[in-house]
Amino acid sequence: MIFNKFKYFLILTIIIVKFAFPQNFTNFFFNGNGARSVGMGNAYTAIAEDATAISWNSAGLTSKKYAQAAVVGRFGKSSTDISGFHEFGIDSWDISTDIYSQINYVGLTYPLNFRKVKTTVGIAYRRIHDFSRNEVNTLKGSIFGDPTGELITNNTSGGGVGAFALSGGFKLHKMLSLGTTLNLYTGSENSYTTYTLNGETKFDKSTSYKNDYNGFGIDFGVLLKPLDNLTIGANINLPHSLEAKGDSITKNLDIPIFYTIGIAFTATKNLIFAFDYRPQPLAKIKIDNEDSNADDIYSLHFGLEYKMAGGKKRYPLRFGYYMNSESNDALNADEVYTAGLSFPFQNFSLDFGFEYAVTNYTVEDEINGNAYKGNYSSNDYRLTLGFAFDLLRR
Predict the structure, then answer these.
(1) Could you say which of 3.40.50.800, 3.30.420.40, 2.40.160.60, 3.60.20.40 is the CATH number of the domain covering 5-391?
(2) Which of 162, 193, 245, 264 is placed for a possible disulfide with 231 were both Cys, Cβ 3.0 to 4.6 Å?
(3) Hey, is 289 helix, strand or coil?
């Protein structure tokens, strides 16, 4: 069979435009901070009370009696199957990623009193969007020269967008706490892709790009406790701008107000239920004063924590679930199932959080008059490991 160069470039176009993880200025991976929050399905706005409250709700900083330092790491791996391209001579299309890792969060909080108002201040670095992946696309089929032909694309990307944060929480009343966080956004993204056909490079189609990100934003947090066993929380991200500077272009992103609302109910001294609602008005994002053409989505988060008895100690066991509204892209999982466990010590705790994410969607389109219906199915596995140290505790 004679290799069809036109079809080859057609498939590359599909990979880059539709199904590979492209440059996307408006819709990055959701990347919550902390291991306890992961175990509870990221339903954490109303119960954030550790050093990661800087990320979730700064009003919760006042809940901690002691200074605390926290370090959080995250590891992940995914596998994906794409189908629906038999008419192009593609019999199978698999995507796999190597195990990736990130520094998810590093923070320090310190309680103090200011004119009889309980105040806690904190500083942190938190990873907001993570781009670290080594992704391999393996396509097999007759389009690549013979019935056992194979095309492999190897995409290595790195970097992310993080924030250096300065935060303060203020307990104004036993029922009301407020907080604010100043975020200096910074980061970079780089990617390099190579293409191998039937074991060797047939065409020089290696591609690469690099983006740098900079910006500043302010968050406000509210924590209301109308009942001893009921807490209502809200975190508000004020409108801000983010500059994305590429190899040859610079884009300015105007990001609208984002917010999260959470409720936590303490059923017993050992059992907590939590719920978060997080809308994402992506359609209102402007890129160089033009519409982003993204779709608004929202996510619903559910979690619980139960403290199991174990001798003289209790070990928090956590379960959670969250779902994204239909977004029809690879960057927002349809459903995520979570679990977590904590091992407390006298001045130290070790937390584990596990996520299993499922994504399925279909794209119907055509390129140069060639119609296709591609089905995307992905499974992601993420492990978050957190260390928290209580300082100056007696």
Answers:
(1) 2.40.160.60
(2) 264
(3) coil
